[in-house]
Amino acid sequence: MNRILLLLLALTLSACGFHLRGAAALPPDLRALAVTGTPENGPLWRVLRDAIPAAGGTLAGAANADAVLVITADRFDRRVLSVDSQGRAQEYELKYTLGYRLDSPDGKPRLDARNLTVFRQYRFDPDAVLAKGEEERRLQAEMRRAAVGRLLRQLTLRLSNPEPAGAPAS
């Protein structure tokens, strides 16, 4: 009985077209991509260096690129969400902002500037400061990867469905 139920569930999911979201596939006119606005070998650049080839593109110099990805913002903010009875922070919220725009190799804008924002929360224990510092660094790395994944999906979507001039940015 359980096998039949499992088989029916698998057939239902496959019939509806469900599939896990994977890496974005860059459009053919965006296969060679130059990146500016972030230090080479910095944390964001390393994530982009891994994500762009996974999406079917290559990192190129500005002279050989199909487009230039200009990073306009790359910052983390942290705020206290809750405090204990002694006024010590118990919970924090991390906010990561990744701003970008896409230019043609000659510097003309291809896509207007956008900001992506990723939020995460974590509990803070003043008795485990080192462990919580490591947890925050891991959260930041995960937030960068999530933002870069969203950025590549947005590039793919925005290039395949151009916005009308004057459309509001989200």
Structural commentary:
- The chain has helices spanning 2-15, 43-54, 129-160; strands spanning 32-36, 58-59, 67-83, 89-103, 109-123.
- It has a five-stranded mixed beta sheet, covered by helices on one side.
- By secondary structure, it is α/β, with parallel strands linked by helices.
- It has one domain: Double Stranded RNA Binding Domain (2-Layer Sandwich).
- The protein contains three helices and five strands; from the N terminus they run H-E-H-E-E-E-E-H.
Structural class label:
alpha/beta
Radius of gyration: 20 Å
Q: What is the CATH H-level superfamily?
A: Lipoprotein like domain
Count the helices. How many?
A: 3
CATH class: Alpha Beta
Could you give a short description of this structure?
Helix content is 34%, strand content 32%.
Please tag this protein with its features.
single chain, 170 residues, alpha/beta, Double Stranded RNA Binding Domain, five-stranded mixed beta sheet, 3 helices, 5 strands, 32% strand
Q: Helices, strands, pairings?
A:
Layout lengths: L1 H14 L16 E5 L6 H12 L3 E2 L7 E17 L5 E15 L5 E15 L5 H32 L10
Parallel strand pairs: 1-2, 1-3
Antiparallel strand pairs: 3-4, 4-5
Helix pairs in contact: 2-3
